[in-house]
């Protein structure tokens, strides 16, 4: 991609540009924002005096690139972490600056910034990029600062300190020193006082005098003035004011950047951007205007679990209906969920997670176009929900071409991590879906592929290599919430391509065992998480493996939940009529993981062996009506037993799915009828179990599922329950 780099004069923005080149991008322009004179803090004024202006301008000459500059007219008006478009805010000056860059150089498609740890800075750059259709590149984001500092020095960043303001840094000793000279001292100060070695906490600021990007010349500082702003005996604050400098031209200029026709045409020019900002709300760029009334002829089904925290599913169930296409079906399904949310006095802001199932992954772009017309950042002002998208054999079982399940909460108290910048940290989420959403003590993570974060390409090496990198990416996201997939996992869902060979399935399971299961630390969560493999016809980007962890993030001080029973709520009761037949198979068919009596994850497997023991017509095909009823009763019994044994109510269910393999030629409506009848029978012993409303479960057709990658259950039940 062709990139415009936001530059401040410091080491970070320069090194961020170098990283852009590392990953195959071309920096073709520089952009710089200048504060108004009356808004400049005395400590930062060195860069905005006459000499400071000339130094920034000299970067364009050193690199042979055009420089676009704008003096800030706005102020900080939106003080929130997440930026909302606000007239008169200084972020709108960045928008005006980059708008002009894009107008003059239309080929630019990305913006580079030197953000390392500041969410405030990153989110504002991402907001502007999103509005302009640009990609944010933040290759220093969340990187280890010690390693960053060492790499900057090793790769030739020559930068001096122009401000010090931290314990252990003295103006008289450390101002004007090069990073290489200060490295050992900074590392010692980090060990002694915990300062950020890259100065991310404002401990120091730098001015870059030379680096490999300066292909034409380096900056030589001839004279400067040191000003002591605060003579505090503990942490003195001092600044260095450049007073004179010159450029020392290089005899053998390199040609690493700015060699394209665009930059040759306007290289080294300085463009002052003074246009008045015309404020428009460009965040809502709906590409569709969904017409709900146009889909009243579609036979839609809705499901709802739980009470305060629950899943709502919607699908099309009409085997005789010819689908009008993915776009039409997805609009119908999302419109129905949209109406359901409104009927309950809620909106998309209440949605924590979205499972998007489509019939053909080749139409993912079209599905995303429909998706973003419903779920926008403006509607989801607390953060867009996390999402997982896979292809399922929906048409094969008469469920149309789109199926959506959302996790919804009545309370608006979620914490969302949405990093849209491409970085070395973890795969970016460019668009209205986030990496992870924390609600209460449960972290719901978006599906993670084996993507190389800085390039956003699938890693080579096949499904096991993808799994290894997906684990690494998931751990990076978990760490952002101060937890780990190795010590906090409640449930671990592994999506696999149905195209995997038998050998590849075995290798995937062995890799998960060696790289994940054997490394688990269960001291916080008590036992191993439940692990489920689900096979799908296709995954995003042609991936072979995708993982979706659900993690426990304790909110109390000691991280230990307390075992408690929901008071005033009638507990489930397994049917006595089924107990004699099904109780003996409980241990062999169920995988259960509970945390402190408040969270329960469970799997119930109906294997061929289990089916042969519970079906009255053993040896015959399992899709007969009687066999389906028997298997449905078995699942219903085990779910009730799991809930009652662990002191959970029916209302505590937040997710209940029945995956069934299409290899067994079972129609969705036939299986739905079997489960409806089974739960109706169970309700006779459970007055708190309501079966006269929408089903509280979702029936999901898959290519295969099981607690092992090498088994293919007839039916697998996936349960998650939680108490407030």
Automatic annotation (TrEMBL):
<dbReference type="Pfam" id="PF01042">
    <property type="entry name" value="Ribonuc_L-PSP"/>
</dbReference>
<dbReference type="GO" id="GO:0017178">
    <property type="term" value="F:diphthine-ammonia ligase activity"/>
</dbReference>
<dbReference type="InterPro" id="IPR035959">
    <property type="entry name" value="RutC-like_sf"/>
</dbReference>
<dbReference type="Pfam" id="PF01902">
    <property type="entry name" value="Diphthami_syn_2"/>
</dbReference>
<dbReference type="InterPro" id="IPR002761">
    <property type="entry name" value="Diphthami_syn_dom"/>
</dbReference>
<dbReference type="InterPro" id="IPR014729">
    <property type="entry name" value="Rossmann-like_a/b/a_fold"/>
</dbReference>
<feature type="domain" description="Diphthamide synthase">
    <location>
        <begin position="1"/>
        <end position="231"/>
    </location>
</feature>
<dbReference type="InterPro" id="IPR006175">
    <property type="entry name" value="YjgF/YER057c/UK114"/>
</dbReference>
<protein>
    <recommendedName>
        <fullName>Diphthine--ammonia ligase</fullName>
        <ecNumber>6.3.1.14</ecNumber>
    </recommendedName>
</protein>
<dbReference type="InterPro" id="IPR030662">
    <property type="entry name" value="DPH6/MJ0570"/>
</dbReference>
């Amino acid at each position: 991609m062709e990139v415009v780099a936001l530059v401040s004069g410091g080491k970070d923005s320069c090194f961020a540009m170098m990283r852009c080149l590392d990953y195959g991008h071309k920096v073709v322009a520089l952009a710089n924002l200048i504060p108004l004179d009356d808004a400049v803090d005395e400590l930062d004024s060195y860069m905005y005096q006459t000499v400071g202006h000339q130094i920034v301008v000299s970067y364009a000459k050193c690199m042979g690139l055009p420089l676009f500059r704008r003096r800030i007219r706005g102020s900080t008006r939106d003080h929130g972490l997440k930026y909302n478009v606000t007239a008169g805010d200084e972020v709108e000056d960045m928008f005006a600056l980059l708008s002009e860059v894009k107008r003059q150089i239309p080929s630019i498609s990305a913006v580079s910034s030197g953000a390392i740890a500041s969410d405030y800075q990153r989110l504002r750059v991402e907001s502007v990029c999103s509005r302009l259709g640009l990609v944010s590149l933040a290759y220093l984001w969340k990187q280890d600062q010690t390693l960053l500092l060492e790499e900057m020095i090793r790769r030739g960043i020559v930068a001096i300190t122009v401000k010090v303001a931290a314990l252990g840094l003295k103006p008289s000793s450390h101002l004007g020193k090069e990073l290489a000279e200060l490295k050992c001292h900074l590392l010692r100060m980090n060990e002694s006082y915990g300062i950020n070695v890259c100065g991310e906490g404002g401990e120091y600021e730098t001015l870059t005098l030379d680096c490999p990007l300066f292909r034409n010349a380096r900056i030589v500082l001839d004279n400067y003035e040191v000003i002591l702003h605060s003579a505090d005996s503990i942490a003195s604050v001092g600044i260095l004011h450049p007073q004179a400098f010159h450029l020392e031209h290089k005899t053998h200029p390199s040609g690493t950047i700015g060699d394209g026709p665009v930059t040759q045409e306007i290289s080294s020019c300085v463009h002052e951007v003074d246009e008045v900002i015309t404020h428009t709300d460009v965040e809502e760029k709906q590409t569709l205007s969904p017409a709900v009334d146009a889909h009243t002829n579609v036979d839609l089904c809705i499901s709802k679990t739980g009470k305060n925290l629950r899943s709502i599913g919607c699908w099309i169930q009409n085997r005789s209906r010819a689908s009008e296409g993915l776009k039409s079906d997805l609009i119908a399904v999302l419109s129905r969920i949209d109406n359901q949310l409104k009927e309950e006095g809620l909106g998309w802001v209440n949605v924590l997670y979205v499972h998007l199932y489509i019939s053909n992954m080749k139409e993912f772009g079209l599905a995303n176009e429909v998706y973003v017309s419903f779920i926008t950042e403006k509607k989801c002002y607390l953060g867009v929900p996390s999402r997982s998208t896979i292809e399922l054999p929906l048409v094969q079982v008469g469920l149309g071409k789109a199926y959506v399940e959302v996790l919804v909460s009545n309370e608006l108290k979620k914490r969302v991590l949405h990093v849209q910048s491409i970085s070395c940290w973890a795969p970016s989420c460019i668009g209205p879906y986030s990496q992870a959403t924390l609600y209460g003590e449960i972290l719901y993570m978006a599906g993670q592929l084996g993507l190389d974060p800085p390039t956003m390409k699938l890693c080579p090496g096949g499904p096991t290599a993808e799994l290894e990198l997906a684990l690494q990416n998931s751990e990076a996201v978990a760490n952002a919430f101060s937890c780990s997939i190795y010590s906090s996992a409640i449930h671990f869902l592994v999506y696999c391509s149905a195209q995997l060979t038998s050998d590849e399935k075995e290798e995937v399971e062995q890799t998960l065992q060696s790289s994940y299961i054997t490394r688990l630390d269960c001291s916080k969560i008590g036992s191993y998480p439940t692990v489920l493999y689900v096979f799908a016809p296709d995954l995003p980007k042609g991936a072979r493996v995708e993982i979706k962890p659900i993690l426990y993030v304790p909110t109390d001080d000691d991280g230990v939940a307390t075992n408690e029973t929901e008071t005033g709520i009638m507990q489930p009761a397994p049917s006595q009529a089924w107990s004699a037949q099904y109780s003996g198979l409980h241990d062999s068919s169920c995988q259960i993981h509970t945390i402190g009596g408040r969270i329960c994850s469970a799997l119930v497997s109906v294997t061929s062996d289990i089916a042969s023991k519970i079906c009255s017509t053993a040896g015959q095909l399992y899709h007969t009506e009687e066999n389906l009823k028997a298997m449905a009763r078995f699942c219903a019994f085990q779910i009730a037993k799991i809930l009652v044994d662990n002191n959970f109510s029916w209302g505590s269910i937040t997710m209940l799915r029945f995956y069934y393999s299409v290899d067994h030629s079972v129609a969705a409506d036939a299986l739905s009828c079997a489960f409806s009848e089974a739960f109706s029978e169970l309700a006779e012993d459970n007055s708190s179990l309501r079966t006269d409303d929408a089903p509280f479960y979702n029936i999901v057709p898959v290519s295969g599922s099981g607690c092992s990658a090498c088994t293919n259950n007839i039916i697998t039940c996936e349960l998650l329950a939680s108490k407030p």
